[in-house]
Amino acid sequence: MTGLTKNLRGLSRRDLLKRGTAGAALIVMGNTVFGANYAWALESSALKPETMATLIKLARDIYPHDKLADRFYAIAIKGHETKAAKDKVHQALIEDGVADLDKRAATTGTSYRDMGWEEDRIAILRDIEDTPFFQAVRSDLVVSLYNQKELWPLFGYEGESYSKGGYIERGFDDIEWL
Known about the structure:
It comes from Pseudochrobactrum kiredjianiae. The protein is built from eight helices and three strands. It is mainly alpha-helical. The radius of gyration is 19 Å and the shape is elongated. The protein starts with a helix and ends in a 23-residue tail after the last helix.
């Protein structure tokens, strides 16, 4: 019996539908990670493609936004691939960190990326939140994810205001809500 089959035992139809396709959202073939629901791919050479796919899942768990497609998380973690190509210490930090995630997830009979329940993955992240691996990924994501201009409208951010005359004349001092 596979880990997925074990995890599906005892689920109601409603629970299964709520769970969705968490394990099938990312496909790894060769040295590329493909998004199953969207037309995008992320090629890797310094890091294993499985590592990149796990980083995408990790990024979504650290900064969860149901409205965001996985491709935005893929763009956000691409910097680790670039840095790993130039820095063997960073490459080892990321590969070893993902291996540790998978080792911790193995107690459930699966890898971190294939764990179906977000709560289970979050429990693992709480255990590693003080590690250099987690801190490196989390601190990079806060910039690399939220600095994607394509996402700004989804969060209601209009971008910098200087070129538009600043905030004062653009509603900053509007306190009608008070």
